[in-house]
UniProtKB/TrEMBL annotation, chains A, B:
Keywords: Endoplasmic reticulum, Glycosyltransferase, Magnesium, Membrane, Metal-binding, Transferase, Transmembrane, Transmembrane helix. It comes from the Eukaryota. It catalyses: a di-trans,poly-cis-dolichyl phosphate + UDP-N-acetyl-alpha-D-glucosamine = an N-acetyl-alpha-D-glucosaminyl-diphospho-di-trans,poly-cis-dolichol + UMP. Coiled coil: none annotated. UDP-N-acetylglucosamine--dolichyl-phosphate N-acetylglucosaminephosphotransferase that operates in the biosynthetic pathway of dolichol-linked oligosaccharides, the glycan precursors employed in protein asparagine (N)-glycosylation. The assembly of dolichol-linked oligosaccharides begins on the cytosolic side of the endoplasmic reticulum membrane and finishes in its lumen. The sequential addition of sugars to dolichol pyrophosphate produces dolichol-linked oligosaccharides containing fourteen sugars, including two GlcNAcs, nine mannoses and three glucoses. Belongs to the glycosyltransferase 4 family. It is an enzyme of class 2 (transferase). Signal peptide: none annotated. This is UDP-N-acetylglucosamine--dolichyl-phosphate N-acetylglucosaminephosphotransferase. The keyword Hydrolase does not apply. One of its GO terms (cellular component) is endoplasmic reticulum membrane.
Length: 342, 342
């Protein structure tokens, strides 16, 4: 089993015939990215509802999944070689349609992930560049290790998407770095997210891609109580600005503990017990002042107030460290999830 | 020579292989249409410049042309059998790259054509439905005449695009008919125009499609003096509304004949001599009051003030008559442009 990596298709076409499979991959990549740019722009202008932001990327990812299937993509994952797990599930698990569900969810997640970890000058573009460079590094390693065959071609395809993306993001970065003269809005975030999803899915690197999104995954999981309204969530959760010191400080949300249902109260108490962000509860009135649940506010809580560009650099440093770790996991611990390190 | 109609590809695939050529056609159709929806929405929000409205459809049509080429599209047109012409050019003319230029221009023209003949309740959607039904009629005739082969498949492909388009346009029409509660903006106009261009190009009916746009072509040619600023052009040229009689009247533009260059003065004098629209020139001051150069204002000038829905019906009647004539030309006079009536 190839564990979803590799698969047939994408190779050198029989001489004389046009490489239609290759053309289809480029066309559906452009289609998905174009749809998400449109969605992002519409969201900027019209402030779409949350549910629309979920099913629209799903629709846009359908052509991707069709082309992945036609391209002979694998849907089997390796069960980690732990005694209980392999006894229960066998050495490998043919996920079939569930693997397509995973890829659709990946497209939805990527599209929104960068948009959630946002609101600081240079952060959206910066994290996109770090992730893109990590994908490029991974592709180059694979292209170097597999001088021919579908793995070679799939990683080349991913490179063809990622290199121009790095170029235009670097150009945008010049204007978006603190103090920003250009702001990215949802359009760039959705564009970047879908570009990663496309490169991951059509490059047959979907699982590896998720490894490069660890800070975004952590941020999403940490945000879940606010996103699903267990805890009140303001429209924007970006850090506050302290004009006196020219530093950013954690932004907070105020509410009464009595208004929350049991799961919300549990979240607030857990955050206070773990010192996870600012949590102040007035014992008399049960009035809560709590920092908004993003890793941006968490970084400001942990390291103290920072100037905006220092904060961006700190978060990008975390992203880069996670990327280095992810590549290490991918090539040193991969036997847990892949039968051979490919 | 097949005169650009027909061509190879799109047929039943060899058993066991996936019809990638067919998938590519659908993907690039969706890509072009999605790009133009995006452009239309951006134009509504940002009021794009004219030059951007020209090169963006050009970019969006490039994938179409690639797929047309891969699909084995013909690029040869038949020279009308007039003695001088055939002596000069031979019986048929292999246009090669020029035919691709024609198709790119067709995409640009279609995208903007419906947007120019607009501004009256129900007119944009109504003309789109009339054109779409004409395309459907043409496709059905072709599918019926050619029970198999590429001509059959290409016209079926066009039907697959046109039938859902007619459905959603009819639904929109209910809300856009006088008195309109929903307005279409540039988004629908660009969407409709590109859908026609895609159906025409990938259905290998590009030249026939142009026959169905005769009112739009006439409107465009009549508009050229204003579009290219030979004569002053206000931002909107839709008819004026006379509240006292509840009728629409031609909208006018005022300027001094002395401000114009020679070509502009020639246009004004020609319109007055031919009684083409309202043209009043004060002999003493050379001050001109001239109706805006659209066939909408021309219809109001010719038939007198009308209520908005009557005007739409009149213009749609003209469109339908032109469509009937176009189908007649296509199947009775086609020997002028096609070697066999296919």
């Amino acid at each position: 089993s190839t564990g979803g990596v590799g698969g047939a298709g994408g190779g050198v076409p029989p001489s004389g015939s046009f490489p239609l499979a290759h053309l289809s991959k480029f066309l559906c990549a452009l289609l998905a990215i174009c749809c998400m740019c449109f969605l992002g722009f519409a969201d900027n202008v019209l402030d779409l509802r949350w549910r629309d932001k979920l099913w629209l990327p799903l629709c846009a990812s359908l052509p991707l999944l069709v082309v992945y299937a036609v391209d002979g993509g694998g849907t089997t994952v390796i069960v980690p070689p732990l005694p209980l797990l392999t006894k229960l599930l066998g050495p490998s698990l043919p996920l079939g349609p569930l693997y397509y569900l995973f890829m659709a969810c990946l497209a939805i997640f990527c599209t929104n992930a960068i948009n959630i970890l946002a609101g600081v000058n240079g952060l959206e573009v910066g994290q996109s560049i770090v992730i893109a460079l990590t994908v490029v590094a991974n592709n180059l390693i694979q292209v170097w290790r597999w001088p021919e065959g579908p793995l070679h071609d799939n990683n080349l395809f991913s490179l063809y998407l990622m290199l121009p993306f790095v170029g235009c993001s670097a150009a945008l970065m010049q204007h978006n770095w603190f103090p920003a003269r250009v702001f990215v809005g949802d359009t760039y975030c959705y564009f970047a997210g879908m570009t990663f999803a496309v490169a991951g899915i059509l490059g047959h690197n979907a699982k590896t891609l998720l490894l490069f999104f660890v800070p975004q995954v952590v941020n999403f999981v940490y945000s879940v109580p606010q996103l699903f309204r267990l805890v009140p969530c303001p429209r924007h959760r970006m850090p506050g600005y302290d004009a006196a010191t020219d530093r950013l400080v954690p932004s907070t949300v105020d509410f009464n503990l009595g208004e929350l249902r049991a799961p919300g109260r549990l979240v607030v108490r857990a955050c206070r017990a773990l010192r996870f962000g600012v949590v102040r509860i007035d014992p008399a009135t049960q009035q809560v002042t709590m920092s908004n649940m993003t890793i941006i506010n968490l970084a400001l809580h942990a390291c103290g107030p920072m100037r905006e560009d220092r904060l961006t650099l700190a978060l990008l440093g975390v992203q880069a460290a996670c990327s280095a770790l992810a590549l290490l996991v991918r090539y040193q611990l991969a036997y847990l999830f892949y039968d051979v390190v490919k």
